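User: Before I run my own analysis I want an independent prediction to cross-check against. Here's the chain; please return only the structure tokens and, at the end, one sentence I can use as a sanity check.
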Amino acid sequence: MGAWGEQGEGVRWATPAMCDSGAVKFGFEQRWTAPVDDVMTTYLDPGFWSGIESFSNMAPPELLDLDHDEDAKTAVVRIKYRVDAKLPSQAARFIDPNNVAWVQETTWDLDALTAKVRFLPVQAAGLIHAVATIDVTTDGDDTVRELRGEFRVKIPLVGAKVEKAVVGDIGTNLEEEADLVAKVLGID
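Assistant: Structure tokens:
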């Protein structure tokens, strides 16, 4: 029967691997030999975000809002990203390959040094779901920022390919972002 089966008269179904492989789980670590406060100050500085001229696979991030409540020890950062992902041609029926963009909404608990991240797609919101968490810790003299999450694209047959393309680009972006943070902190 292969990947196709039948259920009753005239009803065909595809195995989950054929149409919906589930979410891609991802994790990235960034590390700097610098105090936690200096790293957090950089990430919560509007000048840092507006000073980024480009990434190799993305347009410069667009800071939409940064609300830092020092009394409540919280911050919400909203940044729009547009990625130059190479998507499968079949995905173009669902997603404009020239406008693969999302708003990354990061809600920080600055006491715990944790954040919840929502990725809000600019298009095809019903087809894309992505969330992540960020934990900032120390390891000796280093500050470590760990981003863990999942990304899911609900497009038959090509969703998994789109997920892998976009998550790969996010990884490249985070590496370049870490280099920019290091530059701001004066780390070679």
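Sanity check: Strands lie at 4-6, 12-14, 24-32, 62-69, 74-83, 100-109, 114-121, 128-139, 142-153.
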